[in-house]
Amino acid sequence: MTESVGIWNELVRLAVEGYNAGSLGIAAAIADQDGAIMAKGRNQLSDSLDSCNKIKMTSIAHAEMNALNNLPPERQHDRSLTLFTTVEPCPMCLGAVAMSSIRKIVIGSADPYAGSIRLLAKDDYLTKKGISAVFVGGRAEEICYALHYLSLRRYVRPNHVIFDQVRSRYPAYTKKLDELIDSQQLTLDGPIEALQLMKLLD
């Protein structure tokens, strides 16, 4: 989280906004080489709150889709831009990135269930696009995963296969979050605050 701190802080803020509004706690931003945010978006599958998004309350209201949609026309063909996202993009969002001019993705946390970065090396069309993807790791990864996991605990049925996969990928983070939920230090029913979450994860 040492690089692009301002971007990650904004992504956490947006992801918390999404979570508190009843959608998934996932956010994305598109930044230039100086770290200035050109566009941003958050998941808005399940809320109609006034936000930075134009796409709301539909199955395509993902964070990356909104960030791409919010990019100003004059930057649409800029290949120097980078997409930052709190959670590994799904196939839909990766496809949208491929159809844009963006050629670099920076990812907060992996999604071993719906994440599709592996397709960059397996699909001929995507491979030819030359898109690079990196996972940040460290503190940013833990916070991004926490927001994703809390969303899943609230949004997805308990016996869904996604839980086996995320617990296998992030056993320590998941154990800590489950303990915080079980002890009621974190609640799935009410709102959360970014600072509160960060302190609980320390």
Question: Secondary structure elements and their pairing?
Answer:
Elements: H1 5-21, E1 27-31, E2 37-42, H2 63-70, E3 82-87, H3 91-99, E4 104-109, H4 124-129, E5 132-135, H5 138-155, H6 161-169, H7 171-182, H8 194-201
Parallel strand pairs: 3-4, 4-5
Antiparallel strand pairs: 1-2, 1-3
Helix pairs in contact: 1-5, 6-7
Shape: globular
The percentage of residues in β strands lies in 5-15%
Annotation, overall tally of beta strands: 5
Mean pLDDT: 95
Profile the largest sheet: 5 strands, mixed
Low-pLDDT stretches are none
Structural class: alpha/beta
Order of helices and strands: HEEHEHEHEHHHH
Please give the share of residues in helix.
40-55%
The N- and C-terminal alpha carbons lie at a distance of 15 Å
Account of the protein in words:
By secondary structure, this protein is α/β, with parallel strands linked by helices. Helix content is about 45%, strand content about 15%. It contains 8 helices and 5 strands. It has a 5-stranded mixed beta sheet, sandwiched between helices. The longest helix has 18 residues, at about 140-155. The radius of gyration is 16 Å and the shape is globular.
